[in-house]
Specification:
The chain has 202 residues and is mainly alpha-helical. The chain has one domain (3-193). The protein has seven helices and eight strands; from the N terminus they run αβαββββαβαβαααβ. The chain has helices at 3-10, 31-40, 63-77, 96-107, 117-126, 133-155, 160-178, and strands at 14-16, 43-44, 47-48, 50-52, 59-61, 83-85, 112-114, 191-193. The strands form four sheets. The chain has a two-stranded antiparallel ribbon with strand order 1-7.
Length: 202
């Protein structure tokens, strides 16, 4: 592994709600959105995400493949994200582990939330048709998550990752309300970095 890549792994990417003072979501099923995503994109990147037996009507949804599909779309979307000077460096990548943490956070089984959550939800939102109930669900889930982050910032006002989330949320919340699925990554705030570089994510 390249030294720079190893260094990126060590950089923080999670907001951690470890002292239990926040309105955290519980019993919310992120897989509902993933299953819908598979149905809207049944064949992607050379593999089936969703199949339905024409004789029995039995449905097959491949959630692992669907998560990888969402990951690939998000990774492509964040290429060229800008950076800003900060006291710590945020990781410059998304991963399947981050998507799993969103799943577990909504279910009430994790206290770690990826700072890229807003961008992941925006990519998911854009993969659904305009005016669909799935887009509304994306907006509602993200609003629910944001309540916890808003409260967290009151206790930890210097957390760079939480402020990145907040800045992204304001932008994406408006876009979702307006049905805007054409924002580019250049419109998003920069990720916090101790030593900013141009176009780090390549």
């Amino acid at each position: 592994m390249h030294l720079k890549q190893f260094g990126e792994i060590l950089n923080r990417v999670y907001i951690r709600f470890e002292d239990g003072q926040y309105p955290l979501p519980t019993n919310k099923d992120f897989s509902i959105l993933l299953k819908s995503l598979a149905k809207f994109h049944p064949y992607a990147d050379g593999v089936h995400l969703y199949e339905k037996d024409s004789l029995t009507g039995q449905e097959h949804i491949y959630l692992k493949r669907t998560k990888r599909f969402l990951l690939k779309k998000t990774a492509q979307y964040i290429l060229g994200i800008s950076q800003r000077q900060a006291d710590e460096s945020m990781a410059s990548f998304v991963s399947l582990r981050q998507i799993r943490h969103i799943y577990n956070f909504l279910a009430g089984d994790s206290l770690a939330l990826p700072a890229y959550t807003v961008i992941i939800f925006y990519v998911l939102f854009c993969l659904f048709p305009p005016n669909s109930i799935e887009r509304t669900a994306c907006k509602n889930y993200l609003n629910l998550i944001s309540e916890a982050v808003h409260e967290y910032v009151l206790y930890y006002p210097d957390d760079e990752l939480a402020y990145f989330f907040e800045d992204c949320y304001g932008l994406v919340s408006n876009a979702m309300e307006e049905g805007n699925s054409s924002m580019t990554i250049k419109e998003f705030p920069g990720i916090p970095r101790e030593h900013p570089e141009e176009d780090l994510i390549k």
